Amino acid sequence: MQISTHDCFGALDGITVLDLGGPLGNYCGKLFADLGADVILIEPPQGSSTRHVGPYVRGGESPEHSLRYQYENTNKRSVVLDFEDPADRETFLRLAAKASVVLESEAPGTMRRYGLDYAALRAVNPAIVMTSITPFGQEGPYAEWLATDLTVMAMGGMMYLAGYPDTAPMVACGEQAVGAANLFAAVATLAAVYDAEVSGAGQHIDVAMQECVVMGLENAVQFYDLEGTIRKRNAGTQRLAGTGAFLCQDGYVYLMAGGIGSNRFWSVTTEWLISEGLKEAEQFRDSRWSDQTFLATDEAKRIFRDVFAPFALRHTKEQLQAKGREHRIPIAPICDASDIAADPQRAHRDYFVNINAADGTELRMPGAPYQLSATPWRLRVGAPTLGQHTQEVLSSLNRDARTCGLSAATEEHQ
After folding, report:
1. Strands 243-248 and 251-256, how do they pair?
2. Per DSSP, which regions of 117-250 are E strands?
3. pTM confidence score
């Protein structure tokens, strides 16, 4: 797709975001910054806690070398403020008076203790949007509970579906609950900003990570609605005969020959395997293989595995996917990190991008999974050093104050 770029502005130009999101919300700020918003990362004197989260660039351990910090804070400016200092709290309110959004992820009540809760922000800027990301929300019996991503994934029900049938529940790699909360927060925040531009009134957005995880369980509800079954964890094993992960020459593929659309793929899978010389597959023409009750039995799963598994081992992921496309059968390679990094589709879309860290180290990181034709996502600068823009931002704030004071004095004189 051809992208035409307006070099002068981004999609969210003119929006100022004060990002106190920390580990639970910095990615939300990044989504705004990468689309052109002026996102000011407000850090305590010791720096954002994500600066101290590994892994680190080239094995380094300095706060500037955290890969997570570098990725989540591209295109932002860093200002150091100590909220234990009344003067810095006043400075923050002055910044909020000119901002569109405040992102925060403190425990409920913390911002109120500082005198920086939504009521205080609205008093200086009626149109401001404040987005709070917490594990369980601002109110309720769990509101004060501390939680990690793992806790929320468990209490949100997702871990019930993750893992092997004969083991304890597992959790997906990475902080999936945090990621989901940031995406929901970004959508809600942008909607509220749009409303504030129309109505002149901002609002407080309360994002609960647990509820964001629960939203991901809708597929489990569909299983019960369509099949009358309670979905449980299977970790790639055959949920039904012909549906699951199978080992091949260079990894795994996921095959879905049955179990969807009244087994619409079963007959074509059967004829494909027969055409490949697998005479044992002729038994799959029997009517019992169209019965999902039979497909769910251990006997059916064993028979299919005995036929298909040796065939899969003779082929690569790419070969099996090509055969699946040829016969219009869902066969997908299960990609690891190296597969994704070398994916020609990602290369065609320029998905991975390079940026220099503060010390000049070149980093390669994922870009955006979307393309805007007129105001595209852009990676302009890497993550800032601690307090890199404090003087710049506060000097601008002071200049604005002096300008306002001069204007007021001139009007009074006239």
Report:
1. antiparallel
2. 129-134, 204-208, 243-248
3. 0.87
